[in-house]
Specification:
Strand order of the largest sheet: 2-9-6-7
Radius of gyration: 34 Å
Oligomer: single chain
Distance between the termini: 13 Å
CATH topology of the largest domain: Adenine-n6-DNA-methyltransferase TaqI, Chain A, domain 2
CATH class of the largest domain: Alpha Beta
């Protein structure tokens, strides 16, 4: 397999671009990108000769008292060597190639405070050290004379800076400016002997080989960190000076191509998302039949991203509660009961339940104003509030002391599955039969067809259509909406998962998160009521279209699986060293 032949397939998803860059670096530091180059340049000076010159220069620097003499490191043992190098390369330790490896210190320790932009000495922190490049969004300075700052950690152009503390361990960049600057204790200077190509080492430090070594050697204290001693011992796959230049050139070329393909992929996905958003908006505002016919022609081209399929699901629900999925159905069934009659019947039933003391008396809901109505309903439909037709409630409080290892299942919001996923609700929490009966007698319990909705945290909006099992649920986190014979519970679920409900109950603002749901917000949300027969027709239509979305998602998953298999195939050839790769992956 030739790596370059598969660039486009491997970057079909933006997430693959970083993996591909890592793969390129791994090939680079194994010498697999420059096999042909070595054949054409077989007479150049070997890496061992270059290493000898570097060691002689380092000895001279010690004699000239420009650097300190260091304690010799242990020779490289056979069991340390991770793979065989190409002919002409040599393994060495980082310490053999450097003038200094040192970290800085916080100016606060020296009684000096950081200041924001202004005059003073630039202090480079871990925030400024990114992968490959320095980040200057936040610059810190110290108001101090330079001789008050640790002189050993004064930066020079071409110093390699590596983060050695916390979550950014291993991020490495080259200090490529001439500003007078220092570093704090979270950053290490790696100052190489000038007889090497700094960019080659930058690529090595960002390669999977080095990153794996760093994580293996980090000290896991309160904050993970790398010691100077372990950095000094890094094993370096060291090629000749000319091959270092060739590797840098090849990596830069390949990175540029990956970035171009990645950008094209991002632009392609963005254009598709814009088209889908526009097309789906047309569905909810124009003639559904015409717009749907147009959209179907582009299904496989534009609904091959999970985000777009999610938008399609949302639009289907929007069309359902707008009555647009059943326009033809209504034309074929013109003489059915008006929803206003159904609403009056439900209200009478609720009054009777109050008289029978089966539900509690509630504060009257305000009439619906014109400003609240989000869109015009079809003839025969009517707007009402959820609280006008449903009994909305929560449960009695349960304490942790009530939990037992077996008994009646006890549900919380996180146990409630997402609408339409077909997830079975399970729990590992239970309360005793005695506590269950006590709660049941004093408050009542759910029946099949009721709906539970999660109302706080990351599971907000999750719903579950209650089945025939016995269970209890947590107060506050879950709200119960009692089912009634006149409303199809599945239609209620479709409504509760639609943006119509969320916009009404929570006043969603574009780009912002929903606030917590409360019983009052649910009661006051607007409900688009149709007659009983049309509710069932809507559920049938929605289920069919959700089945189509499921099929589209399966196709996306299959495509992603194939992309991942291709990447894994390439990775196996790289890391297992198959013959085919050795022969072909050279440029």
């Amino acid at each position: 397999m030739h790596l370059l032949n598969h660039f486009k397939e491997l970057t079909v998803r933006p997430k693959n671009a970083q993996e591909l860059k890592s793969l390129i670096l791994q090939l680079a530091v194994k010498g697999k990108l420059t096999g042909k180059w070595r054949k054409k340049n077989s007479t150049i000076e070997s890496a061992s000769e270059l290493l000898k010159h570097i060691q002689e220069e380092k000895v001279q620097l010690v004699k000239d008292k420009k650097i300190k003499k260091e304690k010799p490191l242990q020779p490289i043992a056979k069991n340390e060597i991770p793979y065989d190098l190409p002919k002409g390369w040599v393994w060495c330790r980082l310490n053999e190639l450097t003038e200094i490896i040192t970290k800085g210190s916080s100016p606060k320790w020296q009684g000096v405070q950081y200041v924001e932009e202004g005059e003073g000495i630039l202090f480079v922190t871990s925030e400024n050290v990114g992968n490959y490049n320095l980040i200057w969004k936040k610059k810190k300075y110290v108001e101090s004379k330079f001789n008050e700052i640790e002189p050993r950690s004064i930066l020079k152009r071409n110093d390699l800076l590596m983060n050695i503390v916390g979550g950014s361990i291993g991020r490495t960049a080259i200090y490529d400016i001439d500003d007078l600057a220092n570093i704090n204790q979270a950053v290490t200077i790696i100052r190489l002997i000038p007889k090497v190509i700094h960019d080659y080492f930058l690529y090595f430090f960002n390669s999977p080989l080095c990153i794996s070594y760093m994580y293996d050697k980090q000290v896991d204290n309160a904050r993970p960190n790398l010691s100077m001693g372990n950095i000094s011992k890094f094993l370096i796959p060291f090629p000749s000076l000319e091959e270092q230049k060739a590797i840098v050139q090849v990596v830069e070329t390949l990175f540029k191509e990956v970035e171009q393909l990645e950008q094209l992929t991002i632009e392609r996905i963005s254009l598709k998302e814009k088209f889908v958003t526009s097309a789906l908006n047309q569905l909810t505002t124009n003639n559904v039949k015409n717009e749907w016919a147009f959209l179907q022609e582009h299904f496989h081209s534009f609904f091959n991203e999970t985000t777009n399929i999610k938008k399609l699901r949302e639009t289907v629900l929007q069309l359902a509660v707008q009555g647009k999925l059943t326009a033809d159905w209504r034309a074929n069934n013109p003489n059915l009961e008006d929803a206003s009659e159904l609403l009056n019947h439900i209200k009478k039933e609720k009054v009777q339940l109050l008289k029978d003391k089966k539900i509690k008396k509630e504060k009257p809901l305000l009439p619906i104003t014109k400003d609240e109505i989000p869109y015009e309903l079809p003839n025969g439909w009517v707007w009402c509030r959820v609280g006008e037709i449903f009994n909305v409630k929560s449960s009695k409080r349960v304490f942790k002391s009530d939990y037992v290892s077996e008994g009646v299942p006890f549900f919380r919001s996180k146990e409630i599955g997402q609408l339409g996923k077909g997830q079975e609700v399970t729990t590992e929490l239970f309360i005793t039969r005695e506590r269950f009966e006590m709660f049941k007698n004093s408050f009542g319990i759910t029946k099949p067809g009721d709906v539970l909705m999660a109302c706080i945290g990351g599971s907000i909006g999750n719903t579950w259509l209650v089945d025939d099992r016995e269970f209890y649920y947590k107060d506050g986190n879950l709200v119960q909406i009692d089912s009634i014979p006149e409303i199809d519970s599945l239609y209620l679920l479709k409504y509760l998962d639609s943006n119509v409900f969320y916009d009404s109950a929570l006043g969603r603002v574009s780009g912002s998160a929903y606030s917590a749901l409360t019983i009052e917000k649910i009661k006051n949300s607007l409900f688009p009521l149709s007659n009983e027969q049309e509710q069932k027709a809507i559920v049938q239509k929605v289920n069919a279209l959700m089945g189509l979305c499921d099929a589209l998602e399966q196709q996306v998953q299959q495509s992603q699986k194939q992309s991942e298999q291709l990447m894994q195939s390439v990775l196996r050839e790289v890391f297992e060293g198959k013959k085919e790769l050795k022969e072909t992956t050279s440029v």
